[in-house]
Amino acid sequence: MRKIVLIIVLASLACSRSSETPDTTAAVSSDSVVAATSDTAQPDPGEPGVKTCGVPGTPRLDDNGVGELKQGRLLSEVAALCEVISDGQQQGQEGAMERVVVLQIAGETVRSVIQRDRIDRIQINAPLFRTVDSLGVDTPLSRIAAMRGAQFAPGEDGVYGFSPEHCGLSFRFSVPWRPPAGGQWTAAAIAREHGTAAVDRVIVIPCRR
Fold this sequence. Notes:
Blueprint (H helix, E strand, L loop, with lengths): L1 H15 L44 E2 L2 E2 L2 E2 L4 H7 L1 E9 L5 E9 L2 E8 L2 E7 L16 H5 L5 E4 L4 E4 L6 E5 L13 H8 L6 E4 L5
Antiparallel strand pairs: 1-2, 2-3, 4-5, 5-6, 6-7, 7-11, 8-9, 9-10, 10-11
């Protein structure tokens, strides 16, 4: 949990500095909540009884989540609108057990961690879910690094990039979390070394401006 808290704090700092950070090439984002690809066909939104989760067509990822699946929302409200595949305890990255709910949205499965009966973190693993400016799984690291106020932080399983341009979204990369000569990854340095690496997970976390 210490790594997750560190990443959320760093994301908060990036958001709070957005008004004083000039447009320069910087980079990065954070960790933790899973979305797996499903082989099931996308349901027909017109079919009676189908829960579309507020996504009748192409899903749009925003800084709070996807459709009716929003960070901080009561699980009971989400379950009434979205198709719940499973709900149970799973082991988190640092060994602690977490309540995890898996939902189906637009034919893909999305994993969410629950805290106090609310959506705490949402993990997106499928490239279908993209922001209005086309950021998501498969986006190159160089593009995240070029965002205003972008920063990078190490996680348990890779490096996370975030920017105040998308406060609440953390972009994970499977690259070495330690820079070559120690110290910290800067946006420019990680773009030089790993600019062609692609986002392989997007985490929706609390946005604190």
